[in-house]
Amino acid sequence: MALYQNNIENTHIARFLGCHIQTVRTWVERFGSNHGIDDRARAGAKPKFTADTSQRVIAFFCQFQTLPGYARWTLSTACQYFKVNPEFLGEDVVISRASIHRLLGAHALRPHRFRYFLQLSDPNFFTKMEHIIGVYANVRKNLFCFDECTGIQALEHIAPRVPVAPNRLEYREVEYIRHGSVSVFSVLEVSTGKTFTEVIEDHTATTIIEVFKRHVNTVSSTEALHYICDNYASHSTIEVCEAVGELCGVGVPELQGVKDRRKWLASTDKRIVFHFLPCHGSWLNLIENWFGIMKKNCLDGSSVRSKAELSKNIMDFNNTWNQQYAHPFKWSYDGKELRGKTVRKLLYWLQEESSSMTGKFLGKQLKLMTNLIHDDWDKVSEHDWSRLASTIGAKHEYLSFIVESINSDVFKNTKAKTPQERAIKISNKIEDAKRELREMISSFKILIDISLANMMNCEKVA
């Protein structure tokens, strides 16, 4: 009607709004006859469920209080619950599974669906992540990613599959016979996409060293070789250091612990350089992408009668990949939004007072937040920092509850000569952990408040 009153022709209105011209004529006529633009009453039955019923169904699914032993509500269990407890929706309301699905769908709610996520726990995650991203961006040659894919089962399905046909899916037998499992060690060359793969019986340091040496010997270049890998213990043993020293023709200094070994493996004063991922950062390793390709194209739905047959299939796939499908892998993720998401996840758990948050987890998150404030303050919005500061200050009772929940289960691996000595050790560890977490919470409150105050002062000066 606004367009019509501004002398726009009906055909142009219909084209602009994407509707039929008769629709435009109908509404113009109704408006001109003083009927207004409200829709007319329609024939048919009145809505069966009121707005109150819809809101109650939504509220029911948005809370996380399920029946004992149930991880979550499904449409079927909710429908049954409403039948047994009619007072929740009303004594005269009878609702079906389909109606629940329709009411939830009208509000774009799909509680049956979920996605996995991996919360960051390494306090130095972002520093390490920036290093790995920099390696992908700056190392153009001889950059490799390696890892092991373990526990690949050799499964023989007891009946052959039935192939696809018109209007029919492929049928696969669900019952199978296990013939053991194998593991693979793969190295991806980022610049070409080609992979070096061997099937291995185990993934001990000795096995990894043997395969790693064979890969290094396949590289003809005399320039530096860069390897991205995770923090698996077998990647940084003293034996690995000795093998790298032997391959590089350099001596290995005295290395006291795993930190010293990883620091030496990551040093650039030798030909082979390791780049270790942050904890919970396996997704930063491009070899994981290739493992996904292998799983989809080689392993899913396969039926083999022995580990040898499975191993042959894997090696055949690797050869075919290198000959026909290998392509350069390009890393494009910059991680800019990840810092804000990490802050908001912690904020959510604090606001909801999650019962599954432990003292150990909270401690790691506070260390991560502290490093974010020191190193990446400007990469998180002022709004998120302000909300986190106010929530930390308001959740004193909840934080105290987390501190007091630290118990002997956390230190169940403590060893001692006698049960009495073990009990004393555990008791001391519990008290130390509680004191440390209290101090950490207090220090973080002071730090974030000071940081916000300094930022406001800087804005006033500006």
Description:
The chain is of the alpha/beta class and 462 residues long. It has 17 helices and 5 strands. The protein has helices spanning 2-5, 10-17, 21-32, 51-62, 75-84, 97-106, 125-138, 205-218, 238-248, 258-265, 287-299, 307-325, 338-352, 359-376, 382-394, 396-404, 419-461; strands spanning 143-157, 176-189, 195-200, 225-229, 272-276. A 5-stranded mixed beta sheet has the order 3-2-1-4-5, with helices on both faces. Helix 8 (205-218) packs parallel to helix 9 (238-248). The two termini are 49 Å apart. 20% of the residues are buried. The mean pLDDT is 90.
Instruction: Tell me the count of domains.
Output: 4
Count of alpha/pi helices: 17
Order of helices and strands: HHHHHHHEEEHEHHEHHHHHHH
Tell me what the CATH architecture of the largest domain is.
Answer: 2-Layer Sandwich
CATH fold label of the largest domain: Nucleotidyltransferase, domain 5
Low-confidence stretches: none
Taking the sheet with the most strands, its summary is: 5 strands, mixed
Structural class: alpha/beta
**Total beta-strand segments:** 5
Taken as a percent bin, the fraction of beta residues is: 5-15%
User: Roughly what percent helix?
Assistant: 40-55%
Mean pLDDT comes to: 90
- CATH class type of the largest domain: Alpha Beta
Distance between the termini: 49 Å
Q: C-alpha Rg, in Å?
A: 31 Å
